[in-house]
Structures are given as structure tokens and as C-alpha cells.
Design brief:
The complex is a heterotrimer of chains A (372), B (220) and C (428).
Chain A (H helix, E strand, L loop, with lengths): L6 H7 L4 H14 L7 H10 L4 E6 L5 H7 L6 H7 L2 E5 L7 H14 L4 E6 L2 E2 L7 E2 L2 E2 H10 L1 E7 H6 L1 H4 L7 E2 L1 H4 L5 E4 L6 H14 L12 H4 L3 H4 L3 H6 L9 H4 L18 H4 L40 H32 L14 H8 L1
Parallel strand pairs in A: 1-2, 1-3, 3-7, 7-9
Antiparallel strand pairs in A: 4-8, 5-6
Helix pairs in contact in A: 2-3, 4-11, 5-11
Chain B lengths: L2 H9 L1 H22 L14 H11 L6 H6 L1 H20 L1 H11 L8 H24 L1 H6 L2 H21 L6 H18 L7 H18 L5
Helix pairs in contact in B: 1-2, 1-10, 2-10, 3-11, 5-7, 7-9, 9-10
Chain C lengths: L5 H11 L2 H9 L5 H5 L1 H6 L11 H11 L1 H8 L8 H13 L6 H5 L6 H14 L5 H12 L8 H15 L12 E3 L3 H5 L3 H13 L3 E2 L10 H5 L2 H18 L3 E4 L3 H14 L7 E4 H10 L13 E4 L2 H4 L6 H10 L3 E2 L24 H16 L5 E4 L2 H13 L6 E3 H7 L13
Parallel strand pairs in C: 1-2, 1-3, 3-4, 5-6, 5-7, 7-8
Classes of the chains: A alpha/beta (372), B mainly alpha (220), C alpha/beta (428).
């Protein structure tokens, strides 16, 4: 596979017909939520698109994101798109190791300076560079160096997008996200723990088609995939409206498929395509399996007060705080009470009996009238 | 700060701060009131002040005579809608109950969300009517201070933000929910130090006046 | 002799502020319902007469002196102090346009006893020298002469003579060990001597012993109206001393509203001790006599009549059923006024308003409320049980050219007294 080969050439070489190619373009359009009228434009763009170089850096991560992507079954659009890129560095997947691997990265960078796509999974430790290194290079240095020549960066997974589990309280490594470090490159955040495979490939398809990154939400995520709320798209929503909640995982409500809000479902604050794209070749998503959404595509999802604590419950222990405040209020109350009582006792002590001779103020005009 | 950080803050630190000030303020105000003392009544009483005090706590919530009802119709009707509405919205919405459950360790049944939603709308209409009344009625216009308008807003904002966040309107849900929680926290912070303190001091006020009148044999 | 000053006024208010006041101020939501209940507002439409606004200076003082935040604001110079100018301005609100009638306290949804607070506000106003001249004069006469209207003992004695002549019965004076000590209001001595005639005959029929006291015949209490507990205590003290000296069982407050409040409810608290005798309003006594079968009437009052409930009797005193029981005996054509009983509208002259010339204009305007009530009834006679209400009703009806006679309930009952000899006359 050469970098000069277009996607069409690559597909042809893989035995994909013109018809199959257009079908792929239609699927790509639907992934990106584009109207069918866009299909010819996509086809034209993809036909002439050069296979871009992709460098994939993995930092503090669990490889779950790469697993999510590679476990998607072929033949899929995801697979097709991966055929359409030149994955020049991915240390889990690549055959090369050690110096050779690093050389591959450097070479890819040099050859495609300013044009390659940088994919990152995992967070970057700032606490001590030694927490995570690759070939002796700290994650921070490698990210900064590799980002310099990138056309765009795709942060894959919640660790790379928001710090994820490494950043969870008390964040021992001082983990941060890619966007916390890189400020001068377009970054697409594909969050999720892991992200939905089609979402990763959808972003790449968009880049291949338009040469730009898709429209993003305030958290830097493609609106196409993260524009909808799990709660809004949840098939159990009617139970929420009716106030029918499962109270435990094995009660009647759970068996009847009632809303999991009280069992800690974070659907209402989670933006992802799970409820529509679903997982495992469109089989289901967690709520369909009877478990609440963890909110894994959202920042701080690990610290939202507990997976099994209802969203409306405090993320912290309020009772203890309230008890202290009660004590403080009582102390302040006793203090002010003592001052008030003293004030009242003082005015009572100083009270001069009011007689009929004390009913007028020292107002000369009035006193004269009184005297006369 | 992104919406998630904001939401986490209002559900965590923000709530802690609000709770501290709220509880502190309520306890302080109770001490401020009760420790001022009340002289023992030496007159021979006709009825039990204690009993009549408690009776007054309950009966003051019922409509007075029909002429008072007629004369203060607007205030009374909007007052009922507002207070019943607030009760339903605060105490019968499932997520709110689970909040109380999280704090107190026990909950109670909720009612269906669209009904709560209806009450929220009615409550907001009542509040708007109350504001209109305050701005146009000569007595209310005259009596009203900046604080009156401030506490009106303190009450209205949690309702409107709660409504908007439930319907996923206007802003992203997470921001809206965060703003909703924050607005309730502001309400909690200011409640003990503004006239909103009537939410708890009214029981003391009713008790005192009820018992003072009750001792004279007057049904208050 | 010392004199009034702003400082004394503020100190008096500080003394008055207690737990109920703090609870009331904490609970007011500025809903304005008290204004709808106050005849000075309903009849003038003037928002400054809103009852709760009448105690606004006291509210600020409470905040500044007795709350943590208020104290802090005061220390930082952020609060508005109470000034002489302000209290001078407040005089008309506190004295001219409030009869302490208590309707506002009945309707307040949070249960604030606003009237009680205005009464307290008057403590500060009087100690500070902000009371109206009319009430100062009345207080001076009450303390120095023994009656706010300047009625002296000889005047009473003259009336006693008349009454004895008319009734043919002796009117006891300074009799030790009598069951009842009867008090009078100056207005009854001067304007309505019928009251004295009536009770003389009623007690005679009932066979009850009673007495007047030459040292304490006046029931009214200007100290209550001007709002000075010290002066009120001095005046009540005379009654207490008389009752103790004559060893009576019961002191009877006459047909007067505030006198009843002064002796029955404030009295023991003013002299700081529980009374060794009972205090009753004349209507309570009459109703007891009725229940015991000692009050016997004959004939009926043909006229269509209504009863004007004096505020201090119903709302502030708890005497509601008694007049109705009594009217039941003789008045089949009795009709209730709208809002009767505890919600009755004030005549507009109570609480010292009638003693305060500055309030004449607004008092007459406030009477429109009573006028409307009476007009809607089409009645021949108004009965009441308070001489002050009675004067105001007479004045007001005259100004409005309404020809309806006003009667005191006691005297009306006496007119229907069954003329038979009391069974126990000799033994009593």
C-alpha cells in the first residue's frame, strides 16, 4: 500500500466494485448524518482522496479503545475505512518494535509533515513524566513533538479526551487530556470508554471526504454522534415519565424493564450515540442489558458520586456537612443570643419610668406652650 | 469549566457550600428569634395557648371568611397555587425525592412527571401573576423593596431552569441542570436571611399569635 | 422630671422586641393582605396605611439590634438609623390611622399579630415623645384627675344621685366585701348615665352585691392608648388597689373596649402579678346571670336591630357569644351585620383615635366602612357594648345624615327587666 494510492484504487485493488463503492459512500453519508444527495459528492471526494498517513499514540490507556475498534467484525464500513488509511504507527498493532517502531513514526512524520492525522488514546501524566514513557520518551514530549506536524488530532476514548479513569480522584499521575496540552491544532474528541467503533471511523470518513474535521460540540465532540442525549433516545423513557422506577436490580420494576434512574443511570447527562448506533454490531446498549448508563463519554464520569447513586443525589456527603453547619449555627446562635439578652437586660435596667411629664421632647415651642 | 465540571461542582462543592450556609442560617435565625424570649402571660387565660398555637399553625393555611377571601382574592388564589405548586414540584418529583432520600436516608412515592410538569407551569404562572400584581397594585408597589423582587427571582429561576432542563430546551441539558441546581443553591443560601425565611419562621409566628389569641379565647 | 427623647424611644422599642416580634418580622412576605383588612386603607386607598408598614421603623431596629447580619451591617455603617424626623412622620401612621382593632392580625397568612406590634410601636413612640398631643393631654388628665375626660368624683356623685332617684335603689360606694366592683368609663358618666341606672337595677334583680369605688371608678386607660405601659400600669394599679382594698371577687369592665383589654388582659402583666380577683366584661357578667336564671326579662324589642361588635371585645377579647345570647332574650328581629363577630369592622375611633384631634378627618372617612355595613342592613337600631364605639357611631351617622339610634346592650336589657322582687333580696 502506497500513500499515493487513492481510496478508489485501494478499494478496486481489494475487489470492491463501483456499485459497492457507492454503497459505501451512502453508508458513510448516513454515518455522518448527511443527506443522500451528498453521496455523489462524497464519492467524488473519496475517489480522488489520497490515503492519509495516521500516527496512533497510546499513552495512559488500557487498549480498550483499540480493542473496540479492531473487534468490529468485517466486512464493515469501519474496516473499509481502515483500509483507506495508512496506519503508520500503532504500537499495539504494528509488527515493528523498539527503535524500528520509533523510526517508523519519525519517518511517517517527516514524509507527511503537516498532513498526517494524529490519533491519541490514553491520558498524559503531568505529575511525573516517568509515570509513562515509550522508548524512553515521556508521553508529554512525544505528544508535543508528534502534534507539531499533524493536520488534525483525533483524541480517542475518554482518557485522551477528558483524562478519563487515570484522572479520576485523586488523580495520582496528574493525568490530563490531549486538549489540555495541545492548543494550536484542531482536535476532535471521540469520547467513550471505549468509544463506539463507528464513531471513530465516522470521524475518519468525514476527514477523508471533506479534508476537514466535523462540527464539534462545546466539549470538542462531533455533534453528529454526540448531539443526542441517551435519556432522550432511551426506550425506557416512558417509564421515567410515569414515575415507574426499578428500585433494585432484581425487583419487579427491573424485571418489567422500568427506568433505571434511581439505580444511578447517568443517561440524562450523557451525550453519545449508544441508544441509536448500539454496540456489538447493533445488538444492544447497556440499558437494554438492564444496567444504567455510566456516562462514560462525559468528563469526570468516574467521580459523579457513584455509578449506582441516582443522578439527583449529591455527589458528596451532605449530611455530615449539615451536621457541622448545625453546630456552627448553634454556636453563633448562642453567641448572638447572649449579646441580645444582654442588650435587653441593659435597656430594662436603664429603663426610666415614663410618667405623664415625660411625654414631650425638649422642643422649645412645645415646652413654652406647656408652661403657659 | 465545561458542563461536566460545572455539574459536578454544583452537585458537590456548591451543594456543600449552600448546605452549610442554609443550615447555619436557619439555626442562627431560630436562635435569634427564640432566645429573645416572651414574657409569661399573667392574665387568667380562657383557653390553652399551647393548643391554640398549634391549631393556628394548621388553620391559618385554610381560607379565612368569605369576605376576606373576596377582598384579597388575587393574593389568596395565587398564593395557594404558588405554595401547593411548590410543594408538588419540590417534594413529589422522582429525582427530587431521590435527592432527599440521599440526604435523609428515606424517600416516599413520586407522582408521574407530566403532572409535576403541569404544576411547575401553574406555579410559574402564579409567580408571574404575583409579580404583575406587585408591580401594579398600589399597596404592593408601595410596600415592595428590592429584596421582594430579588426573592421573587430566587424562587422563579429554579422553576424555569428546572422546567427547561426537563424539557431539554434552550441550553444543553447538563448546563441547564447545573444552572438549575445552582439556582436552588442560591435559594438555599439566601433563604434564611431574607423574607423567604417565612418558610420556617411562619410556624413560630403562627404559634405565638395563635397562642396569644387562644389564651384570650379568640379563635385566630 | 425627665423628658422624652429619641434615645428613650429607641430604648423602649428595644425592650419591646421579643421572640414573637422577631418571628413576625422574619415571616412577613409583603403580601399586602393586611391592607385589605384595614379600614383606614380600604376607605382611603392610601397605601401608606398598610398595617405592617406602620411598624417599619421597629422592623429596622429589630434587624439592626437583634440579628447577626443586621448588627454587622450596622457596625459597618450600612444601615439606616431611626431618626426623629422619621418617627415624627410615623406619628400619624401609628396613632391616627390605627385603632388597634386587630383585623390585620386575623387575616395575616403567616399569622403575624400586626396589631400587637403597633401597640408595641406605640411604647417607643410615647417614650420618645412622638405621641399626639390629644393623647398626651388625655393621659395627663387620667393620671392627674383620674379620668381622661377630666371627670371628677363630684360629677360621678351627681350622676349617682340622679340614678338613685330614678331607680329608687341605693348605689353602693366603697362597700367592702361586695361581689362586684363596678367600673365606669368617663363617657358613661358624662354621656350615657343610663348604664349606671341599668346595672343598678339588674344587680338588684339578680340579688348580687356590688360597689363603686371613689378612688377608682374610671375604667378607661389612656396609658394603653398612648402606648405607655408605665402610665397604663399606674392607672391599672389604682383599680387593683381598690379591688384588693374592697376585697371584691370580680371587677367589672364597663361597656368599653380598650378598658377591658387594659384590665382583663394587659392588667396583670402591667402590674407584674396575677390578680387575686376576676375581671369580667359587663356582658360576660350579664350572660352568666342569664345562664343562672338571675337575669329575667319580659317583652321584646320590636325594632329590627343589629349588634356592632367592639373590636376589643371580640377579636382582642374573646367575648363573642355573650351579646348574642343576651340579644336572643329580647330581640327576635336581631340581624347580624356582614363580617360580624371576630371579623367585624372597627367603628374607626378606637385605640385612642377618638382622643386625637389630628385624626378627626381620617376617622370620619374610615367610618364609611361602618356606614356601608349598616346601609346594607336596613335596620332601625344599632346595639353595641362600648361607649367609644357608640359615640363614633352617633357622630358618624349624624355626619352621614343617617337617622339610626344607638343603644348600649346593658341599658337595652334593663329596659326589659322583669319587675319582680329578687328572692334573696333580704339576705344579700
Amino acid at each position: 500500500m502506497s500513500h499515493d494510492e487513492t481510496l478508489k484504487e485501494s478499494l478496486t485493488r481489494n475487489g470492491v466494485s463501483r456499485r459497492g463503492f457507492l454503497k459505501f459512500c451512502a453508508t458513510a453519508a448516513s454515518i455522518m448524518a448527511l443527506p443522500p444527495s451528498m453521496v455523489p459528492a462524497i464519492a467524488a471526494a473519496l475517489e480522488s482522496a489520497r490515503r492519509p498517513s495516521v500516527i496512533w499514540l497510546s499513552f495512559q490507556e488500557c487498549t480498550g479503545c483499540a480493542e473496540s475498534l479492531t473487534r468490529s467484525h468485517s466486512p464493515t464500513v469501519e474496516g473499509l475505512i481502515f483500509d483507506a488509511i495508512s496506519l503508520d504507527y500503532q504500537h499495539t498493532l504494528q509488527a515493528a518494535a523498539g527503535d524500528a517502531a520509533e523510526e517508523a513514526r519519525e519517518e511517517a512524520m517527516k514524509e507527511n509533515w503537516g498532513k498526517y492525522i494524529l490519533v491519541v488514546d490514553g491520558s498524559i501524566p503531568l505529575g511525573n513524566p516517568g509515570y509513562s514513557t515509550i522508548a524512553g520518551i515521556s508521553n508529554l514530549d512525544m505528544l508535543k513533538e508528534t502534534a507539531k506536524g499533524a493536520a488534525a488530532i483525533v483524541a480517542v476514548g475518554t482518557c485522551a479526551t477528558f483524562g478519563g479513569i487515570p484522572k479520576a480522584n485523586p488523580n495520582p499521575t496528574g493525568a490530563v487530556s490531549v486538549s489540555d496540552i495541545i492548543k494550536d491544532k484542531p482536535i476532535v474528541n471521540v469520547s467513550g470508554c471505549p468509544p463506539i467503533p463507528v464513531v471513530i471511523t465516522g470521524v475518519l470518513a468525514h476527514f477523508l471526504t471533506f479534508g476537514t474535521i466535523p462540527e464539534l460540540d462545546e466539549l470538542g465532540r462531533p455533534k453528529v454522534f454526540y448531539g443526542n442525549n441517551i435519556h432522550d433516545r432511551c426506550y425506557r423513557r416512558p417509564f421515567y415519565e410515569r414515575g415507574e422506577f426499578a428500585e433494585t436490580f432484581d425487583d419487579e420494576g427491573a424485571k418489567k424493564g422500568w427506568c433505571l434512574f434511581k439505580l444511578g443511570c447517568k443517561g440524562p447527562i450523557t451525550y453519545n450515540a449508544c441508544a441509536t448506533a448500539k454496540w456489538n454490531e447493533g445488538t444492544s446498549f447497556p440499558i437494554e442489558s438492564g444496567h444504567g448508563c455510566l456516562g462514560c463519554s462525559e468528563p469526570n464520569f468516574w467521580d459523579m458520586g457513584g455509578f449506582y447513586k441516582a443522578l439527583s443525589q449529591p455527589a458528596v456527603d451532605v449530611s455530615q456537612t449539615a451536621a457541622y453547619a448545625l453546630g456552627a449555627g448553634a454556636v453563633a446562635g448562642l453567641g448572638i443570643a447572649a449579646l441580645n439578652r444582654k442588650k435587653k437586660a441593659d435597656v430594662a435596667t436603664d429603663h426610666q419610668t415614663v410618667t405623664i411629664h415625660d411625654l414631650r421632647r425638649n422642643d422649645p415651642s412645645k415646652t413654652e406652650a406647656e408652661d403657659s | 469549566m465545561n458542563s461536566a465540571d460545572f455539574l459536578l461542582w454544583v452537585r458537590g462543592t456548591g451543594l456543600q457550600i449552600a448546605t452549610v450556609i442554609f443550615v447555619f442560617g436557619v439555626v442562627l435565625r431560630l436562635f435569634e428569634i427564640l432566645t429573645l424570649g416572651h414574657k409569661k402571660n399573667l392574665a387568667v387565660t380562657r383557653g390553652s395557648g399551647f393548643k391554640e398555637g398549634f391549631r393556628n399553625i394548621l388553620t391559618r393555611s385554610l381560607p379565612r371568611d368569605k369576605n376576606t377571601l373576596r377582598r384579597s382574592m388575587f393574593t389568596i388564589v395565587t398564593g395557594y397555587v404558588l405554595h401547593i405548586g411548590l410543594f408538588v414540584v419540590i417534594f413529589l418529583l422522582a429525582p427530587h425525592i431521590s435527592l432527599f432520600e440521599g440526604i435523609f436516608g428515606f424517600g416516599w412515592p413520586s407522582i408521574s412527571t407530566p403532572i409535576v410538569d403541569l404544576f411547575a407551569v401553574l406555579t410559574m404562572i402564579a409567580l408571574l401573576a404575583i409579580l404583575y400584581h406587585r408591580l401594579t397594585n398600589p399597596v404592593l408597589k408601595f410596600l415592595s423593596t428590592k429584596q421582594d423582587y430579588f426573592v421573587w427571582a430566587l424562587t422563579f429561576v429554579p422553576l424555569i431552569t428546572g422546567y427547561l432542563s426537563y424539557h431539554h430546551l434552550f441550553l444543553n441539558y447538563n448546563w441547564m441542570l447545573g444552572i438549575h441546581i445552582l439556582s436552588v443553591e442560591l435559594l438555599m443560601i439566601f433563604l434564611p436571611f431574607t423574607k423567604l425565611s417565612h418558610a420556617f419562621t411562619l410556624f413560630i409566628a403562627r404559634w405565638y399569635s395563635g397562642s396569644m389569641m387562644g389564651e384570650k379565647g379568640v379563635k385566630s | 422630671m425627665s423628658e422624652a427623647s429619641l434615645e428613650r424611644g429607641i430604648a423602649a422599642l428595644k425592650e419591646q422586641i421579643d421572640a414573637p416580634v422577631a418571628a413576625f418580622f422574619s415571616s412577613c412576605t409583603h403580601c399586602g393582605m393586611c391592607a385589605d383588612a384595614c379600614l383606614f386603607h380600604t376607605e382611603t386607598g392610601c397605601p401608606t396605611y398598610t398595617p405592617i408598614y406602620k411598624v417599619e421603623p421597629m422592623r429596622r431596629l429589630w434587624e439592626q439590634e437583634y440579628t447577626l447580619l443586621g448588627r454587622a451591617k450596622k457596625a459597618l455603617g450600612l444601615s439606616k438609623p431611626i431618626t426623629e424626623e422619621e418617627l415624627e412622620k410615623w406619628q400619624s401612621k401609628v396613632y391616627n390611622t390605627c385603632t388597634l382593632c386587630g383585623r390585620c392580625s386575623m387575616v395575616c397568612p403567616v399569622g403575624n399579630d400586626i396589631t400587637g406590634m403597633i401597640r408595641k410601636m406605640r411604647e417607643g413612640m410615647s417614650a420618645g415623645g412622638f405621641a399626639p398631643e390629644g393623647l398626651i393631654g388625655a393621659s395627663e388628665r387620667a393620671v392627674e384627675i383620674g379620668s381622661p375626660m377630666g371627670v371628677r368624683l363630684p360629677a360621678l356623685k351627681a350622676q349617682i344621685k340622679h340614678a338613685e332617684k330614678d331607680t329608687g335603689l341605693a348605689i353602693p360606694m366603697d362597700v367592702e366585701g361586695a361581689e362586684y366592683l363596678v367600673l365606669l368609663s368617663s363617657m358613661e358618666i358624662m354621656n350615657y348615665p343610663e348604664y349606671l341606672h341599668a346595672i343598678t337595677r339588674i344587680f338588684h334583680q339578680a340579688g348580687k352585691t356590688w360597689t363603686l369605688c371613689s378612688e377608682a371608678f374610671e375604667a378607661t386607660n389612656s396609658g394603653i392608648q398612648i402606648g405607655s405601659s408605665d402610665i397604663a400600669a399606674e392607672l391599672v394599679g389604682r383599680v387593683v388597689a381598690a379591688a384588693e382594698k374592697l376585697k371584691v371577687k370580680t371587677v367589672i369592665s364597663p361597656e368599653c373596649g380598650h378598658a377591658y383589654t387594659a384590665i382583663r388582659w394587659e392588667g396583670p402583666n402591667l402590674v407584674h402579678k396575677e390578680f387575686g380577683f376576676k375581671v369580667q366584661h359587663i356582658l360576660e357578667v350579664l350572660d352568666e346571670l342569664r345562664a343562672e336564671g338571675l337575669l329575667k326579662t319580659e317583652g321584646i324589642e320590636e325594632a329590627k336591630l343589629t349588634f356592632h361588635d367592639p373590636c376589643q371585645l371580640v377579636r382582642r377579647g374573646g367575648v363573642v357569644e355573650q351579646p348574642r345570647n343576651l340579644l336572643d332574650m329580647i330581640a327576635p328581629n336581631f340581624v347580624e351585620m356582614e363580617d360580624s363577630g371576630v371579623m367585624n369592622w372597627c367603628c374607626g375611633a378606637g385605640g385612642g383615635v377618638s382622643a386625637n384631634e389630628d385624626a378627626d378627618k381620617v376617622r370620619n372617612k374610615a367610618f364609611n366602612r361602618k356606614k356601608k355595613q349598616l346601609e346594607s342592613l336596613d335596620i332601625d337600631v344599632v346595639v353595641t357594648a362600648c361607649a367609644n364605639c357608640r359615640i363614633q357611631l352617633e357622630d358618624g351617622l349624624e355626619i352621614n345624615e343617617m337617622d339610626i339610634p344607638i343603644l348600649g346592650l346593658t341599658e337595652m336589657l334593663a329596659e326589659h327587666l322583669k319587675e319582680d322582687k329578687p328572692v334573696e333580696e333580704e339576705t344579700s
